[in-house]
Design a protein that fits this description.
Layout (H helix, E strand, L loop, with lengths): L1 E2 L4 E2 L8 H11 L7 E7 L5 H15 L6 E6 L2 H16 L6 E3 L4 E4 L5 E7 L13 E4 L9 H10 L5 E6 L6 H8 L6 E6 L1 H4 L4 H10 L2 H8 L13 H9 L3 E2 L9 E6 L5 E9 L5 E10 L3 H11 L3 E6 L14 H7 L4 E3 L6 H11 L3 E4 L4 H9 L2 E4 L4 E6 L5 H14 L6 H15 L16
Parallel strand pairs: 3-9, 3-10, 4-7, 4-8, 8-9, 11-17, 12-15, 14-17, 15-16
Antiparallel strand pairs: 1-2, 5-6, 6-7, 12-13, 13-14, 18-19
Helix pairs in contact: 1-2, 2-3, 12-14
Length: 454
């Protein structure tokens, strides 16, 4: 960039590839309505992070506003520090007067309107609240929390944000997939896709070597940008594939002849997930609905139950609902009863693998409504084991991310169904009786039963 007043030329040691240049050009294209959103689906080793680091630097040098700020946001603060911080310092320090802050992972250009480029983590949303951004990069977006874009970033757009770059590599039909789908319907959203077979960046012999040691799903996902391939380390990949192939993901209507049971995973700051099921005398489980939300109280979910107007049987909650809240001194079990939700508690299972196994056992008995359970199905397909980068293997522990809440709720559903020693009806009666015995009878309010009740 050339400064007309001082005749000083700033040269950044970055020569973009044609693919990286396509990203920059798309972000610089004016969009009716003011905000430009570019979603770039990139194969591994394409150079997306380097492009994602350089665009905020270039934007900071050219921005006419006073004290502009730009963010590079990864799935976690630690991960983005590892992936992007050295790149950011390397390219930014070519700018005269650049000031590097190692503590807050930021670079400032005092001679260019005192502009700032800073690294953030989506796992620390509080660090973004109250800030303004003139441009933002969401790096490795497939690993971000599912509501991060809508709850954190979109509100930042309302004031100053002029462009947003969403970068990632497919890993199932998660929030990155949804962002790709938005490009077909949202004004100002542009999709760019880079497959390894088309870019020529990775040499053919390297691709052949990768293909020889990877599964076909892994290769298609990492290098050919396939959202259809199974998620790496997916715990229920075969069960989910079988459900689709056997036609058990279809239209499953609500039948008023059967009560609707609900299975919950309760969160406060993160998601609460609810599965709605109807059990048949044949042993089949009709999964007719799914709901999730975050950052709201139990009263919100009580309204959701009422608005769905099902006739309910038993509401099942995990055992941690019996823990007392610090603020009120009551358990969430007691708080729920005040709202008319009479929870039974799912039998505690110490080993996580037992819950995962129980889910495997009941999958063949489940029929899922494809439309109403879409978000839940995406989560079940994306529930995966963690990857140990040191030994380069997936480990037994599942990743705690956006998919784990739906998976935990489904695991509770599985536990109560996969119990050869007890019938579901007997389990429900026993669990309700135990929960009522352990609570304060003077504060308990009975559940309302009937069409439209909860």
């Amino acid at each position: 960039m050339a400064d007309v007043d001082t005749a000083t030329e700033v040269v950044i040691p970055y020569t973009p590839r044609s693919q990286q240049q396509a990203i920059h050009d798309a972000l610089l294209t004016p969009t009716p309505g003011g905000i430009t959103v570019v979603v770039a689906v990139c194969h591994r080793r394409m150079g997306k992070t380097v492009a994602g680091v350089n665009h905020p630097i270039l934007a900071a040098l050219d921005c006419p506003l006073e004290r502009p700020q730009f963010g590079i946001i990864g799935p976690t603060y630690t991960q983005e520090k590892r992936n992007a911080w050295e790149y950011l310092k390397h390219y930014a320090m070519a700018v005269p007067g650049c000031k590097v802050n190692e503590t807050e992972l930021s670079v400032r250009f005092p001679e260019q309107n005192d502009s700032l480029v800073r690294i953030f983590g989506a796992d620390r949303p509080a660090s973004l609240r109250g800030l303004y951004l003139d441009g933002a990069v969401l790096d490795e977006f497939q690993d971000h929390p599912p509501n991060f874009l809508t709850e954190i970033i979109i509100p930042l757009m309302a004031d100053r944000l002029k462009w947003l770059l969403i970068l990632g590599t497919p890993n199932g039909r998660n929030q990155f997939y949804k962002a790709v789908q938005k490009c077909a319907t949202e004004r100002g959203w542009t999709l760019i896709e880079f497959k390894a077979s088309q870019t020529g960046i990775v040499p053919p012999d390297v691709l052949d070597a990768a293909r020889s040691v990877m599964t076909e799903d892994e290769y298609q996902q990492e290098f050919e940008c396939s959202f259809e391939a199974s998620v790496k380390g997916a715990i229920w990949a075969r069960e989910m594939a079988a459900a689709w192939e056997e036609g058990r993901v279809t239209h499953v209507p609500y039948d008023p002849e059967y009560p609707v049971d609900t299975d919950w995973d309760l969160g406060v700051g993160d998601q609460t997930a609810i599965w709605f099921t109807q059990s048949r005398h044949t042993g089949d489980v009709h999964v007719i609905d799914y709901y999730e939300s975050s950052g709201v109280g139990l009263d919100h979910y009580a309204r959701v139950l009422q608005e769905k107007r099902y006739v309910y049987g038993t509401h099942w909650a995990p055992h941690d609902i019996e823990q007392r809240e610090f603020t009120s001194g009551r358990t969430r079990l007691e708080s729920a009863r005040r709202l008319g939700i009479n929870f039974a508690v799912v039998p505690r299972v110490k080993a996580l693998e037992d819950r995962i196994h129980a889910a495997r056992m009941i999958f063949p008995r489940c029929r899922f409504d494809a439309e109403k359970c879409r978000e839940g199905l995406d989560a079940l397909a994306s529930y995966k084991r963690d990857y140990n980068t040191r030994i380069k293997e997936h480990v037994a522990t599942p990743v705690h991310d956006w998919a784990s809440h739906a998976a935990d709720a489904f695991g509770g559903l599985a536990i109560r169904h996969y119990n050869p020693k007890a019938k579901p009806e007997a389990m429900a009666r026993a669990a309700l009786k135990a929960a009522q015995r352990d609570s304060d009878p003077f504060r308990w309010q009975p559940v309302r039963v009937g069409r439209g009740g909860y």
